[in-house]
Design goal:
With 294 residues, this protein is mainly α. The protein is built from twelve helices and no strands. Helix 3 packs parallel to helix 7. 27% of the residues are buried.
Length: 294
């Protein structure tokens, strides 16, 4: 923190402390304390010696349990990549405004207002075996047997995509729209084509925001639970690590083991975020933001 010059107030004055205190207290009460308490509970197994790593050893020695990490990554990573790429494509195309932009944006972000449960029910009604899509395709003679688009990986990925796309799209649209249009105009005047402008001018400027969007979407996708239950196979191919924690807590009533699984889940997310942050630090930080649309 920079020292205050003579006759000037410190950067961290009492007003700033009072404004910052509620946020710090909220983070400590709602995030830090629950996490530390979860770690404490996980180190006290119901069976075995107190203060041991028995729960963690049990988890990683049981293929049925530790396979949930692979399953969760297999759901979260492809979903995140698809969401970010589609959001980038649409946000880049809408960066300077298009016809009916507000209407299109409203339609794209509408799933935010639906909620996970309602959204999952809609997916079952439209993409299910007896859903509208299969009925239309069978009625048109395109297929003879209904497509299996729910109660599997596809159903969960569809649900995650619809949940996370609006957040990613709005974030990237705001970020890309804030890049100075004169940079594109200058590159165009120098003879660069659309692809060269995107690859050599825009993408390096977008990259930091793109990495942040990727991180947020991945964390939300990795914590998948309702979608994996409603439109997946919670006891089979889409048994994620969150489902494993839920089963131990509310079916086996072993909160200690459930806490250990939750801690492992958090550590997996933290490891992924650290990798993403390291990648972001290698990105060039742009100083040409701020003029927005023209």
């Amino acid at each position: 923190m920079a020292l205050a010059r003579s006759g000037e107030r410190s950067e961290l004055d009492w007003v700033a402390i009072l404004c910052l205190a509620p946020t710090v207290l909220y983070v400590l009460a709602m995030f830090v304390y629950p996490f530390l308490y979860g770690v404490y509970i996980s180190l006290q197994p119901m069976k075995g010696a107190a203060w041991s790593l028995h729960n963690y050893a049990t988890f990683f020695s049981d293929p049925y349990q530790y396979a949930t990490i692979k399953t969760t990554f297999a759901l979260a990573l492809p979903t995140t990549i698809v969401v970010v790429l589609v959001a980038l494509f649409l946000a880049y195309g809408m960066r300077r405004g298009i016809w009916l932009e507000r209407t299109i944006t409203t339609i794209l972000v509408l799933p935010i207002s639906l909620g996970v449960i309602f959204l999952s029910e809609g997916i079952l009604g439209f993409y299910g075996t007896n859903g509208w899509l299969n009925q239309m395709l069978i009625g048109a003679g395109i297929i003879s047997e209904p497509l299996e688009l729910t109660h599997n990986f596809i159903g969960v990925i569809l649900s995650l995509f619809m949940q996370n796309f609006p957040f990613c799209f709005l974030m990237l649209l705001g970020y890309i729209s804030g890049i100075d249009p004169s940079l594109e105009n200058s590159a165009r005047m120098l003879g660069a084509g659309p692809w060269a402008i995107f690859r050599r001018v825009m993408l390096p400027l977008i990259a930091p925001g793109l990495i942040i969007a990727f991180a947020l979407v991945f964390v939300m996708s990795f914590a998948v639970f309702p979608s994996a239950v409603m439109v997946g196979q919670p006891a089979g191919s889409t048994r994620t690590i969150s489902i494993a924690a839920y089963q131990q807590a509310f079916e086996q009533y072993d909160m200690s083991y459930a806490s250990a699984i939750a801690v492992i889940m958090g550590l997996c997310q933290l490891a992924a975020l650290i990798i993403i942050i390291v990648v972001r630090r290698r990105m060039t930080i742009s100083t040409t933001m701020g003029v927005g649309k023209r």
